[in-house]
Amino acid sequence: MPTAFEKELVTLARRPADLCALVASALEEATRSVLETDHTLGGRVREQVDAAVALGAACEDQACALLALHTPREVAVKAVVAAVHTAADLTRMGGLVREVAEAPGRVPPDARPALARLGAHAVAAARASGEWLAGGEGAGPGEAVALAEAAERELREWVDGRDWPRGARAAVDLVLLAALHARFAAAAGRIGRRAAGFAPVGA
């Protein structure tokens, strides 16, 4: 029968996976909000980000309590520390989502398909990392991260090229939005690599 500590460890291990799903959903809606200039969606995104911050803090508090009240083995300590680092990364990703939702200006209609693709790749990276955090056996976030990096690079090249049909202000706003999505995807990739280094709790 699992001990109280083992039950708490399982609960802690699930929280980053839940947090990953939350920030992925928040980015999906944040991207839609800027593409559609939908302020209602933006308000919902801010609520999701606040929930992510609260869940990340709860994860850290639980981890500190586990280490203070028990004397776990080294492998368990590493799992607890990994959960704390992952929760912190995901909380920062929530901050990136908030910046996307609050981005100034409007996305030009001819730029929306490219930004939508970049957003979809970033969301896919986060969801793939979430699957690994939950102990799944999917392909992981690597491919989605690479696609996000390529999409950002293509968008930057378009904005910097002679074919860019908009002004400098629109170019700056779009590049900043693309960079936020790319940073989100890169963070999801780091989380996936960390998750791959640990066996699921209870395995």
Question: Care to describe what's here?
Answer:
With 203 residues, the chain is mostly helical. It has helices spanning 4-36, 39-69, 74-101, 112-133, 142-160, 168-196. The chain is elongated and about 65 Å long. The chain starts with a helix and ends in a 7-residue tail after the last helix.
Global shape: elongated
According to DSSP, the number of beta strands is 0
Mean pLDDT equals 87
Listing every helix as H and every strand as E from the N terminus to the C terminus, the arrangement reads HHHHHH
Low-confidence stretches: 199-203
Q: What percentage of residues falls in helices of 4 or more residues?
A: over 70%
The main sheet comes to:
none
Radius of gyration of CA atoms, rounded to a whole number: 19 Å
Number of helices: 6
